Sequence to fold (111 residues):
Amino acid sequence: MKLIFWTIAAVILMIGFPWFAAAFVDHAGMIVCLLLFFAVNPIFSVACGFSAGKEIRRLWVLPIIVAGLFFVGAQLFFATGERTFLWYSAGYLIIGIAAMWLSLSMKKRNH
Fold:
């Protein structure tokens, strides 16, 4: 159930928000993209990673899903073939895995 919740949230955030920014935001589009790339997406990656670390057996795939959905959304709604989005995706994956590892180690320390 939690995997479904986080996956739906990731689809909304990683595909829905870029679509919204590309389709409806005219003059402030770059600001919206910068907020997504440097604030919203990394924070969401951390939240997903922490959640995955609490239930590692069920949610270990969550950082991969988030990074993959970001890459798909960026390719759909921004410059297709741009390598920068691959680097962002890798960064979000690393952030999510680091948060998952931190959450898992905190969980083990408390038990």
In short: Residues 52 and 60 are 6 Å apart (CA to CA). The mean pLDDT is 92. Residues 14-110 form one domain.
